Amino acid sequence: MTENLNSWIKNRIKEEEITKYMDSDKDFINDDEIREKINNNQNPDSKRIREIFDKALRIETLSPDETAMLINLKDTDLIEEMKEIALKVKLKVYDNRIVTFAPLYMGDYCVNNCLYCGFRTDNKVIKRRILTEDEIRKETEVLAGKIGHKRLIVVYGEHPLTDVNYIENSLKTIYDVKVKVRSGFGQIRRANVNAAPLQIEELKRLRDVGIGTYQVFQETYHHETYNQVHPKDTLKGHYKWRLYCMHRSLEAGVDDVGIGVLFGLYDWRFEVLAMLYHAIELEKKFGIGPHTVSFPRLEPAANTPYINQTKYAVSDEDFERIILVLRLAIPYTGMILTAREPKHIRDKVMPYGITQTDASTRIGIGAYSDRYTEQELERQQFLIGDPRTLDELIRDLAKMGNITSFCTAGYRCGRTGKMIMDLLRTGKEGNYCKLNAITTFKEWLLDFASEETAKIGNELIERELNEVKEKLPKAYPVLKEYLDRIGNGERDLYF
Amino acid sequence: MEKGIYTSKLKEDCGKYLEKLRDKYKTGGIWICERLGRRISFVCGKEPDDIKPYDKIDIDENFILFVENKSDLINDIDVILLKLKEILYED
User: Fold this and answer.
1) Other CB atoms closer than 10 Å to residue A169's CB: what's the count?
2) Residues 12-51 (B) with a CB less than 8 A from some CB of A
3) Which pLDDT does position B39 carry in this prediction?
4) Contact between A253 and B41 using a beta-carbon 8 Å cutoff
5) pTM for the full model?
6) DSSP 8-state secondary structure symbol assigned to residue A402
7) Which ipTM was obtained for this model?
8) What residue in A sits closest to B7 (Cα-Cα)?
9) Phi, psi of A5 (to 5 degrees)
10) A316 lies in which domain range?
């Protein structure tokens, strides 16, 4: 086994699939330059800050200097103003919808040894296993048939047991599940993937089997820190293989990519700016920026003392700033806030421009369908902070004036890549978001909602319909027709 | 042409042709997507002007033409599809 494992590891990284994208012998993250930008953009005047707000409202990507000014902003009035701008940006691009999803962990085997991760190979207290095909089916039946999710983020460790063949087959299994529910059927319509960096040919296989977004987090963009927390003799120890995986993805035709940082490994200011550099690099090379950005904070994990050793733990106040700055700096991108964060934090930052979140979350392997109801650290990568069910979350969001969307239309009608970038930047996508949020929300209310949530949800739909009638009069009759058809049992109607 | 690998020249040629169709037939948004398994990925073209259902016309098993308003264009569709295939599969 060890020999096979070593051989597998040895053949993973293809240097030519890194160097082909590089303009020089250095990658596009220049640590010194980022540090300089942060240091040189202190104390911006209010006029300049408001110009930056206006630029974000035009849905233009901010420059590193402009972003550094927002990072350094200290004026409390302007910070309050930034919160309003963030919401306006989000509403312009995505309207008042929040997309929900569930994470589905497929296994906890991993060849890497990242100091902060509960799944690291040296951690002997973790109970390791991968889901069988039958178990994947059972998990999906619960997610799609009982909870009512339409969208997953499927998470894989880097290991030959969960290699591209496994990923391909598991996605096929997930898409194959169709469960009869109250008045329609439950099915996963979009499976996003969080996995290790893959090769171009492997990404083409995932593209053909219907991957949604391909998500890989750099964890930290700071070279020195990256090398410290990802041992050099491991696959993940190769900074550039990870850094250029989105380039490979876009070349392979998987044109929805998600980037992210694990906040708490290094200075959050540096990481936010580095994420912007990543977005700018992708825009420059492919005309397509990140479909989503993620900003998880380091959480406790079993037998993993690293969290107590880091000096870069992110406070709640700084976490809010991270979200605000990212919302303005990359205004077109989707922003994912997960149930890692406790309810009070999620409620507070949701209006700062969050577009996607999870609920009814279980991150233990096989935890949706088995007998366990409590979190078990030995079976999880970390602890989650918000245990709300999807029904509860939807009700809370509705009370805040947000409509929950189960829309998965984009990648089934070509609103991907460059097309979606143009639609997002012009604010047109927000109209699709609204219409598809209403149709998919109606489906969910009919098929899964509790009585209380259905009441609040239907009231929200009435308000949304009035808004559509006024703002999108040409679309209104079609929307009404779709809602009637959904009421009669039809499903998956979209704009 | 390998699936999912379209050159900038192909996109440019295809985009120019779609632009002509848009002007001539007043189609509004008109764009081409490639079937990549379950994914329908954008190749080139112009997004719709308005928010309403659009028509899908199969070019072949690999490509789909999306048109916001096909009423004028439909009479010449055979010729248009032939021309699009020619561009899309040009070496």
Assistant:
1) 13
2) 31, 33-34, 36-42, 45, 47-48, 50-51
3) 79
4) yes
5) 0.93
6) P
7) 0.78
8) A251
9) -65, -45
10) 2-25+98-409
